[in-house]
Structures are given as C-alpha cells and as structure tokens.
Write a structure and sequence with these properties.
Elements lengths: L1 H4 L2 H29 L4 H28 L2 H22 L5 H29 L6 H22 L3 H32 L26 H32 L8 H16 L7 H20 L4 H27 L5 H4 L2 H12 L1 H9 L3 H24 L20 H8 L4 H12 L4 H8 L3 H15 L4 H15 L1
Helix pairs in contact: 2-3, 2-5, 2-6, 2-7, 3-5, 3-8, 3-13, 4-5, 4-7, 5-7, 6-9, 6-11, 8-10, 8-11, 8-13, 8-14, 8-15, 9-11, 10-11, 10-15, 11-13, 17-19, 18-19
Length: 483
C-alpha cells in the first residue's frame, strides 16, 4: 500500500482529485454567498442546486468534446475553458445584476463539470492497482476538505479567495495538459500490431474467461438509481443547513469540515478492507444513521447530534459513489464518461429534488418529512441489496477469477510471480498466445483501447519488457529457469 501511494502517478492522481474537489466545493460556497447577498434564502438554495445540475451536464460533455475535437485541439479546448472560468470568477466577485450573476455562475459550473470529468478520468488512468481506489479517493477528499477549512478560516477577502480559486484552477489545467501530452506520446509509441513469436499458438491452453460485455451495465444502472435516492436524503439535510446559513439564523462554523475530512479518510480505509467486499454493507449502515438524523432534527432533538451524524455520513457517501463509479468505469467502453459519473449523478440528484425538499421543509410537517425519509431509506435498502448481488467485475472477488485456484500451470505461476492483476492476466494471455492487435484484444475483452494500452504498459513495467516480442521471450525464458 505504501509503495502504491508513493508512486509519482498516484501522488499526481490524489493531488489533482483533491484540488478539484476543493475548487468545486469552495466555488459552490463562494457562489452561494454571492447570491445570498441579493436573494431570498429559498432562491439561494434553488440557484445552488441548479448550478449543481448544470455541472452534471458538464461531466457528461467531456467525452463528447474529446471525441469531437482532434488530438491537437484538446489543449486549445482546455485553454479556452480555463480563460472562460477565470473571467467567470472575476465577474462573480464584481457588483453585477443578480440575473447576470446567476448566468455567469451556471456557465462556471458547466466548465467545472467538464474539467471535473477530465480529472476523474486522469485519476483512473494514473492508478495502476484499483484495489486501493477507495483509500486514495478518501485521502483526496480528506485533503480537499482540509484545504477548504483553511480557506474559510484564514481568508476573509473576496479578492484573495478569487485568486486562490483561480490558482487551483490553473494547477488542475496544468496537470491536465501534461497528462494529455503523456497520453499522446504513449499512444504514438504503442504499436498497433506486433506478431507473437509463437505465431502458430493461437489457441491458449490456459485461457482466462473474458468478462461479459453487459457485465457492468446492470451495475451502472442500479448504481445510478442508488446514488440518486441516497442523494435525496442527503440533499434534504443539506438544504436544511443551507437555509439556516442563508437566513443568518444558524452559524455552524467551520468545525464540521474537520468531521468531513475524518469521515472521508475513514471511509476510504474501511471500504478497501477485503477488496471492498463490505463496502455496500458499511454504506447501508451509514444511510441508516443518516435517516435517523432526519428524525432527530425534525422531532426537535439535539441539532448538534443530527449535524455530527450528517457530516460524518456525508464523507462516507462521497467516497462511496466516487469509488464505485471509478471501479466500474474501467470495464466499460467509455471510461471517460463513467469515471466521474458519481459526482455527476449526485449533483443531478440534488438539483432534481431541490424544489421537493424545500417544499417539505417549508411545510413544517415533521411527520411528512420523516415518512418521506423512511420511504427513501426503504427504497435504498432494496437497491443496495440488488446492487450487492452483482459482483463488481475486475476485482479479486469476481467468481470468474477465483482467488484460491492453485498455481499449477506455468501461466498462473508466471502471473503470480510478477504480481499481474486478474485483468492484466487476461490481456497478457492474449498478448502471448494470440496474434491479435491491441484493438482486437480490447474488443474481445470488452474494454476500451486506451484501457487495454494501460494494462499492456503495466504488464511491460512489471515484467521488464519493452515490446510484445520481448514479453513473450521473457515468458519463455522464465519457464525454462523456473519450471
């Protein structure tokens, strides 16, 4: 674990995701404060949630922009988005009409959504071993919340906050430029076809079963609905807090952000236990506590207890949906779309339930709100049970890749000796036992070409080979020495 965390690629991924999370949350906080100066509390909450909905559109636009523009235009697109975002930050800090302030904020969150989708895909590409996804997401989230805590505690000037947010934006775009350059260089150096030395061996004796093409789709659909219904509960609680903050009747201070940071870190390490086998169960318990916090707040119980439970639960929720979509996206044909879909679905869900939750809160009917929360919790219970029944493809608990199979054959022994993951074994098998091109291997395993190339690069690094022929020769030589 320590070796994986200290890799330059892992540090880049964690830093980028942390800075983006800080940028997004701090921009949301800054925007809400600007809107609240000239709007009612209800309108402030609505505008906030609509901005979140617009950001979800941005998350979905990134793969379309990537496909539409040629490689040489990607940098120009990122540069244009950066300049547009900086202009939006300048306008938000200026005395402008409320209508223009709202429109500029929506445009800014659209841009942040596009950049956020790119950051999540970058995170996916940089992490070589996804069994540590949750820990790295938790570390990123915890670090982001600490940055936000320091920002809100130490910076009181709107101008200084604008400059800090612009600096965070430039940090993200700089690394996206470098990542784009590395991707282009790696693609140009990766041969499309390399004949295997054993050209006559097209039938693998030890062939691993390929994952189902539709294996990830049912999970993705269930996960989308699961996150939406979870968001309904969290959004209702969040709107209660935001309304109090906008009214000026409630000042919760900055200390809950420390709870958020701690819960994010705890969630990452707890979720990763036993290859995330208990992640869904842990999240179910957290949702139960969150539902109870709704009842506590509505029945006149201690606001402090409800607030603590809410913030502790929120950290777990963020790490849950981010990790779940990242892990599943690697097994889809369009990981650029699905890598950041967790944040997109959460933001879209918050926008969709905004008016309903505000109406329930404004009605002052505690019983109605509690019954609604219980119905949502029952729905979440059904969805999480159905989702848990489907094994996550690509992790070691997948029944297609049994953990306890004895390494009795050369292929399995070689894979174990060089610490090849289950999916890397599938790619390695096709590299040394077939003459398929990279695209054909990707198609046969139902993954994207980019993902297949990343697996090949990882295999080369672990084995110490520089080409497909070198990989095959290393495999044959290893067999002669060890078997």
């Amino acid at each position: 674990m320590k070796q994986e965390l200290t890799k330059p690629s892992s540090l880049r991924a964690i830093s980028m995701l942390a800075v983006f999370t800080f940028l997004f949350l701090s921009t949301e906080y800054f925007y809400v404060n600007q809107i609240a100066q000239n709007a009612s509390s209800a309108r402030t909450v609505n505008v906030q949630n609509y901005a979140l909905g617009i950001s979800a559109v941005g998350f979905c636009l990134y793969p379309l922009l990537f496909r539409f523009f040629r490689d040489r235009l990607h940098s120009a697109v990122f540069f244009t988005l950066t300049m547009l975002a900086i202009v939006c930050f300048v306008i938000l800090g200026s005395p402008v009409p409320p209508g223009l302030l709202t429109a500029v904020g929506m445009l800014l969150f659209l841009v942040l959504g596009i950049l956020g989708s790119a950051v999540h895909y970058h995170f996916l590409c940089e992490i070589s071993d996804k069994k540590y996804f949750a820990r790295m997401v938790g570390i990123s989230y915890g670090f982001a919340i600490l940055l936000q805590f320091l920002n809100n505690s130490l910076i009181s000037s709107a101008l200084a906050e604008q400059l800090l947010l612009c600096a965070a934006l430039l940090f993200i775009v700089f690394f996206l430029f470098r990542f784009q350059h590395r991707e282009a260089s790696r693609s140009s150096q990766m041969p499309d076809t390399e004949a295997c030395a054993a050209s006559g061996s097209t039938d693998s004796q030890h062939k691993l079963p390929a994952p189902s093409a539709s294996g990830a789709l049912p999970q993705l659909v269930l996960l989308i609905f699961l996150v939406i219904f979870m968001t309904c509960i969290f959004s209702t609680l969040d709107n209660t807090v935001t309304l109090g903050h906008a009214d000026g009747t409630m000042d919760i201070g900055q200390w809950p952000r420390i709870l958020l940071a701690c819960s994010g870190l705890a969630a990452g390490f707890l979720f990763d236990l036993h290859n995330r086998r208990f992640m869904n169960l842990i999240m179910y318990c957290i949702m139960m506590l969150s539902t109870l916090s709704v009842a506590i707040l509505q029945l006149g119980g201690s606001f402090l207890i409800g607030l603590i439970v809410f913030y502790l639960s929120s950290g777990f929720f963020v790490v849950f949906f981010t990790t779940s979509f990242l892990a599943l996206s690697e097994d889809t044909r369009c990981p650029r779309l699905w890598a950041g879909m967790g944040r997109a679905v959460n933001n879209a869900g918050a926008a969709l339930v905004s008016n309903l939750s505000l109406s329930l809160i404004a009605s002052n009917s505690s019983i109605t709100l509690i019954i609604t929360a219980l119905v949502l919790f029952a729905t979440v219970s059904i969805l999480i049970a159905a989702y848990s029944m489907l094994k996550e493809p690509g992790i070691s608990s997948d029944p297609d890749y049994p953990q306890d199979t004895p390494n009795a054959d050369p292929f399995s022994t070689f894979s174990t000796a060089f610490s090849l993951t289950d999916r890397e074994q599938s790619v390695f098998d096709q590299l040394v036992n077939t003459e398929k091109s990279i695209q054909e291997i990707a198609d046969s395993l139902f993954i994207s070409r980019r993902t297949c190339q990343r697996y090949i690069t990882s295999i080369y690094e672990k084995v110490g080979a520089k080409s497909r022929m070198g990989l095959y020769q290393s495999y044959i030589e290893w067999q002669r020495k060890n078997l």
